[in-house]
Amino acid sequence: MKVFTVISGLLMSSVVLAETELEEVTVIGTTEEKTSVPEKTEILKEGASNTTLGAYLDALPNVDSASYGEAVGRPVVRGMSGYRVKVLHNDNDLNDLSAMSQDHAVAVAPRASERIELLKGPASLLYAAQAGGVVKVSDSLNSRFPEKGFHGTVSTDHRIDADSHALDARVSVANDKWALRLGGLKQESDSYQSGNGDIIADSDVNTTQAQVGLSWKPNAQSELQINATKLDKDYGIPNNTPEATRIDMSREDLGIKYRYQPDLEWLDEITLDFLDSDYLHDETEGSRKDGLFGQQQQRGSLNAAWGVGDWMGETRIGLAHSELKVCHEHGACDAFSDATRTGATLGDSVTQYWENTGLPYSHGHPMPDTQSRIFQASTTAQKMLNDSLELSLGTHLQSRQLTPNPDNIQEQWVHPSGLDPDYYDKRDDHALSFSLGLNNKAEEKKLTWEASIGYLERFPSVDELYWNGFHHATDSYIFGDSNLDKERSVNLDFDIGYQHNEHLIQFSTFYYRFKDYIYQDRSYDDNGNALIDPFHLSQVWLTGQTDAIFYGGSLRYENSQLRFNDKPLTLWGQADVLDASKTNGETLPRTAPASMEVGVRYEPADWSASLSLKHVFNADKLAPNEEETSGYNSLNIQIKKDWKVANQDVELWLKGTNLTDEYAENHLSVLKTTAPLPGRQISAGINWKF
């Protein structure tokens, strides 16, 4: 859109003129009622090894990052990955395809956000019914009307090994009725080195983002916002293909939001939110566009905050329409198009492969163009049962209509009706989820706790249903299954905290039982030999369902008894464990290994320092035919210094990760051997708020 070209120029100009960057990201771990743990914010930020969303959340209990390199890192929460973790940007579903495959980056810039929250239990059902919860990424465009005057934040940093630099800024100017917000981000990183000194080819990344928001406040009760965001990300995929594989991704959002606070005792606020989002990325091998992925979405929602009697809550009603398109054709994916029809038998080549191999291999476009229409209605509510005990409820109703259209698929690769006459039929699905929670939230209590139980239903995604083809970036052939049923789970969560003087103990545990859990695994013949696809001689992955159980927990302890220069020296430790298996006892693929981390934190008035050592144990809980991943250590340090200059805040920081330069692989990544974790990295930066 031309408007984004103008916006980009304005925003990047504002960055250059201000010579400053966006305010540092605040990462907040939340409970079901969205209560934050502010004392952990800096520790979480310090633990981020890069700027991916998974890295920002990696320090939270039982949260990992399915990452490789600088570009890609989707959060894995309590073993839940992909579609089981919903990512929101400014309260709207993120219109990207990061859950489809691990090589697809999350189309959001965590560095440019103001707050990242992880919601679970009843509170998460306001937005989605996902077993892994909801990750809310919020930036300045989701904030209330800004303070009068001219304000802003600017940051810049530089890193060696691999060379990386970034500059981002956010400014706002407002009077009593009008406000303008501008934001820009530019970040570049060269290919990184592993712990053994090897340069990981095609692991570089280039990210830019431009944002503009205009707000009008006609009176004290209402506010109208018009917002736009453009994000571009160009990055390499460090895989085994002989030529360089790259992804060029873009996301363009245009949104309107209206808030109104009526003069009603039972209704606190109404929010109307409309969003048009256009996502597109192409995958190239060498200089050929071998793949093209696109999704357009229009979404509208009504959110009401209310109070009736002793109950307070929120109700959200939304309707969304999206169209997903995929192209796979060597060097011929410059644009989406319908395939030529000559009158030949549809699916004759697929039929031949079925007869010869027992599997319907296809070398055409891997899935039909599919339109989705989704309606959802959800409510969360809380009520105090006594002075300290709160009851919370959450419900989520969702209806989905899928309309697949195989006109984009070349006629010889269309799924033949002789194998499944209903393969491309329209689908209507309905899901109902609910959750119940209790928590002891009295501030004067030394012992606090919260517990929740939920029943969740999830639809199989479009690609889980229809994908049938090769994926260049991950060098694998993937079969979906159009007969997949809804995924159902019963989720039990329990968290307890105890704080007394200089001691803090936090313990969390969970138990999730799934019916028809959807997963992908490599396929083998009856003799144990790995299946290889006939087109690229690559590994074959099948999508299936099984009953499964996830359980585990996290324990954290902090001690602030020691003092240095009359300031507390906080010692802390955290351990996470997880088990994920089918009900027959077989471990599920890519189960996160146990980890343990210890550290020390020192925070005088105007500066702070932290040192931590994380040990990830051997990944030896393995699915059949899965390879073990060795454990590793990571030694990290951060030092920050704050100044107050003429009512402006300036912060300098120095950070080092994996200081021992240890070689490590991420067991959660399908490309763990070609994209090991980075070696030693040293970076420094400055943040300015005015």
TrEMBL record:
Show the SUPFAM superfamilies listed in the entry. Answer: Porins
Q: Which InterPro entries match?
A: Beta-barrel_TonB, Beta-barrel_TonB_sf, Plug_dom, Plug_dom_sf, TonB-dep_rcpt-like
User: GO biological process: what's one of them?
Assistant: siderophore transmembrane transport
Domain (TonB-dependent receptor plug) ranges: 40-134
From the UniProt annotation, give the residues forming the signal peptide: 1-18
| Bilayer topology annotation | Multi-pass membrane protein
- Where is it predominantly found? membrane
Q: Name one Pfam family in it.
A: Plug
Q: Report the GO terms under cellular component.
A: cell outer membrane
Q: Which UniProt keywords apply?
A: Cell outer membrane, Membrane, Receptor, Signal, TonB box, Transmembrane, Transmembrane beta strand, Transport
Q: Where's the TonB-dependent receptor-like beta-barrel domain?
A: 201-659
* Transmembrane domains' residue ranges: none
Protein family membership? Belongs to the TonB-dependent receptor family.
Q: What is this protein called?
A: Outer membrane receptor protein involved in Fe transport
Instruction: State the organism of origin.
Output: Cocleimonas flava
The major lineage groups are: Bacteria, Pseudomonadati, Pseudomonadota, Gammaproteobacteria, Thiotrichales
